[in-house]
Amino acid sequence: MNERLLVLVRHGQSEWNLKNLFTGWKDPDLTEKGVAEAKEAGRKLKAQGLTFDIAFTSALTRAQHTLDLALAEMGQTGLPITRNLALNERDYGDLSGLNKDDARAKWGEEQVHAWRRSYDVPPPGGESLKDTLARTLPYFVQEILPCVLRGERTLVAAHGNSLRALIMVLEKLTPEGILARELATGVPVIYRLNADATVASKLDLAG
Q1: According to the annotation, is 194 in a ligand binding site?
Q2: SS3 string of the chain?
Q3: Residues that bind substrate, according to the entry (predicted)?
């Protein structure tokens, strides 16, 4: 029987992560640390003896670069890769490009915290986590999950919030549960699924 393998990895540290800026759909590349994290993700996956048949990533450079570096470390550079903005990071709207401390000075600690950490309160001109879920989940269900259930070993390199949308469904988390879920940059999470798309096992390669 084919293995129903799904691996999720958040992109390595980006230039704007380093500068403490809201990034969203803006398109900075990886820092040197981010490049190292992406390569390390590939090494960790290779050490697990994993190979992939197909990969998905967002329309943003930092996720694409992470995927390319990880696959290169694994010797899997010829893989079919699908890029789609459905997997993009949450759109932070008017906050995009702002330093998080400057945003707090402008709108207040409480308001910025609500935008960052509530489930359904969007920042001005942007998306809430609920909005991001509404964009990402249909793509996962229609395009990614069928590959996994067919036995195609699938790697997804994307972003903290778009991956939270997938994790929320896979792990049956509540809105409160997904808000509390942190995803480290460049750390693969390995899922093996049952035939009904429930999770048979999960392995987080942090550390």
Answers
A1: no
A2: CCCCEEEEEECCCEHHHHCCECCCCCCCCECHHHHHHHHHHHHHHHHCCCCCCEEEECCCHHHHHHHHHHHHHHCCCCCCEEECHHHCCCCCHHHCCCEHHHHHHHHCHHHHHHHHHCCCCCCCCCCCHHHHHHHHHHHHHHHHHHHHHCCCCEEEEECHHHHHHHHHHHCCCCHHHHHCCCCCCCCEEEEEECCCCCEEEEEECCC
A3: 10-17, 23-24, 62, 89-92, 100, 116-117, 160-161
